[in-house]
Amino acid sequence: MSKHWHELLPIDRYSVSSAGLIHEYDRKVITLLYQPLIGPVSIGLYMTLWSELEENRLWSQSSLHYNLMNTMGLKLGDIFQARSKLEGIGLLNVYKKKTDEENQFLYELLPPLSPEQFFTDGMLNIYLYKKVGKVQFGRLKKFFCDAAIVVDDYQPVTKSFTEVFSSGHLDSLYVTDESMEELKPEENYRFIGTTSAKELEGFQSTFDFDLFFAGLQDALVPKKAFTPKVRDTIAKLSFLYGIDAVQMQKIVLGSVDADDQIDEEELRKTARDWYQIEYHNDMPSLSDRIQPALYQTQMDGEPKTKEEQYIRQLEKVSPRERLIQLSGGGEPSKSDLQIIEGIMLGQNLNPGVINVLIDYVMIKTDMKLTKGYCEKIASHWARKQVVTVKDAMELAKSEHRQYQSWATGKKQNKAGARKAIRTEIVPDWMKGDPAVPPNEKEEPGVNKELVERKRQIEERLKNLKSRG
């Protein structure tokens, strides 16, 4: 049974609002720039919610999530996953009000970044480049560019307001206090306007600024150089390239100009150069990141137990490297990387936590990544706010029976086994909600090394469960 039922039910009502006017041009930006990152289902949800707003209105009628499921032809779990991705990438704010009878949600649509903001973001543009490739990225860049207006040979001759208009009599603009109230919108109303795009959030909480500043001397880099914008850039670069606080000190020192200011462009370039030297790669993807130092629990000293060794191993490799290790050195498939990157973006889970997920799922599904199964567990971990490898391992142990039922649920149903009893009270029309796709059978002639690796991981999990 999927954990989204704990947060969202088909009978829950929702209304759609807009933080400001969203323009037709925004549709092109969302479709061409955001869709490769979060997928067509999330974009479809955004467009569906947008269509519920009447023209030039900021509010929609209230409706049931059941109606939204029918409109989009999706299960509630798929809608929940799509909603999470919209939240994470800054296109949706979600508000919830609980009453005795029902839960009510408010979905506030946010405009996308402008093309200029997107292509100069320093993170989203790199993920897009990695996702669509050099040729398509060049096409998109050209599509959202136009010739710059050169005014070097011109003189500005635009007239100001006071040059064109006059106020007339001195008392012509006098307005009483009572009349001033008439100029304001009525209570609980606001004027329709535009709003700025939402910046991506959460990066500074994942970077250890205390450790970072502890190793920097004021004589080398004055504290005033670390403006809020610079701090945000440092945190984003750390997230993007997997740079820890100690390594970031060296990168920042190489980006200070003659005026003791931190050049952000030089900072980005230095971080990119470091990544290319470290990983022999042009651009990073989400699956190339490692566990942030702030959430590593095995940094100091040598591991004393097998469990500590296992934790350190998962903290020091990226999800992509973990997939390579489990496949005996073979490159992971594009579909596997898409599953992992989709979860990392949508659920905002740390790379080390993703590594635990990979190990657990590979064992339960014959060394294959099953998308629905991965997303169910990841969604549960995200709601439990799992941030460390150890937390993920402990939760996997305590919820093992539940996760096992998710993995085998549909097979049992197909074999005519008795359906699991739902503990939540749900309408009759929601009973029999399809379970996770069935596990694929192991292909004949499986590589012996693959079988041995599977056995080793199973033994490791068994030891952990016996100790827990």
Automatic annotation (TrEMBL):
Domain DnaB/C C-terminal positions: 329-394
Ranges of compositional bias, category Basic and acidic residues: 439-454
Entry's family note: Belongs to the DnaB/DnaD family.
Residue span, Replicative helicase loading/DNA remodeling protein DnaB N-terminal winged helix domain: 10-252
Pfam families, alphabetized: DnaB_2, WHD_DnaB
Domain of life, source organism: Bacteria
Region annotation Disordered: where it falls in the sequence: 429-454
Protein name, as recorded: Replication initiation and membrane attachment protein
Alphabetized Gene3D superfamilies for the sequence: DnaD domain-like
Species assigned in the record: Peribacillus glennii
